[in-house]
Amino acid sequence: MDVIPALDLLGTDAVRLERGDYDRVIFRRPVDDVLKRLLTLSPRLIHVVDLDGAREGRIRPDVVRHCLDVARPTPIQMSGGIRSVDSARQLLRLGVTRVIVGTAAWASPEALQHFADELGEALVVAIDVRDGKVAVGGWLDDTGLPVDEAVRRCVEAGVVRLHVTAIARDGTLQGPDLDLYRLVCGHGPHVVAAGGVRGDDDLKALAEVGCEAAVMGMGLLTHLGMTD
Predict the structure, then answer these.
(1) What is the pLDDT of residues 43-81, one digit of tens each?
(2) Is 170 annotated in the active site?
(3) What is the pLDDT of residues 197-222, one digit of tens each?
(4) Of the residues 8, 50, 52, 177, which is catalytic?
(5) Number of structural domains, the chain?
(6) What residue numbers bound the domain in which 56 lies?
């Protein structure tokens, strides 16, 4: 079970939002301070979310370059604002290892297939879940698409990896939604879990239901003593 530290960006700060609510910022620090502390854990990968990009539908190349420079040589997977294959490829050219696509991938079944065909293993499809349905647009909009249907479409499109977030648990340290991961695991794609992960017991439970890895935000920041 891989642990992937999460770095969420708002403006040029590292932040954590409670349940994805932009009006409930529960942590804010300079991005360099947080990224350098996360790197002391020697992670295999850093998960970076550009919240401004997710909300506004654009990528911010200067911010991406800065994170890559600070993190080097640790790889980064990037999320937020990727609305086309071209913008995904731009991030890959900048040096990002994997791109996480949510909103644009769920625009239509054809869009999902196009991303999968063009990006291959560099693509991670985000299934961000609120009340059993997929949310998009920085978690501000609900698609009405049930989780099991979203997983089925990903399997049919040949998607290799899913990033599945329980929005109601995000930033809460209440533990992962194991029922959600039981639903999405075991269908073929690798599953990365996010939302509420606190520590070793949660990681063990996620591994037992079949998750490949878990993203940790507040859990790691608390462990590092950065939330005091």
Answers:
(1) 999 999 999 988 888 999 999 999 999 999 999 999 998
(2) no
(3) 999 999 999 999 999 999 998 888 88
(4) 8
(5) 1
(6) 2-223
